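Protein modeling request. Please complete all fields; requests missing the sequence field cannot be processed.
Requester role: graduate student
Desired output: 3D structure, token encoding
Chains: 1
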Amino acid sequence: MTKIIFIFSLFLLFFSPTCAAHLYKYDQSLQKGSSLNVPLEFQNGTATIEDVSNWTASFGEETEPPILLRMDLDNDQKEEILAELRYARGQQNSAYLVFDDEEEGYRYLGMLSFSLIHVIKYKEPDRSYILTSWHHSAFEHTISLDCIKDKKIINLSSIVLKTDEPSNNPLFGKLFKGNVTEKELLQIFHK
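Delivered output (191 residues):
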């Protein structure tokens, strides 16, 4: 009987999802523009923080762990994790895989790319929007409006600003630095 318990304990030790981080093969799907094959542990919210680092690093054959940012993107009083895809840096922009911190682990929500990010939170109704600015060239910047809904990042709309310095643009200033009502925000992006 003791042998059976010992063998069962070894089985649990080696095959338990919370025991050790998963290892992920080099994945070029993002570089090729293919759809992302999300591992099961990220779909069901049981991935560890080590899984987040390992999976993110697998997209660029990284040897160092990714930079992790923490911020509340959905106004639920809990911070999501943004893991930087180092291979995708360029023109003052970065790309991030976004994860929700759930009771049993981390769930993949989607990807955000930006040079600047700003979360606009509204108390009534209890909701938030994610604004990102993406630098395309010396005279073109895209601003995207996203939200988190049904455990996914949803892109609601994008606008392009033709300006050499977005911080000098009144619309950019209103969105990223001023107070904008939800009605105004949605009107700006749905013209």
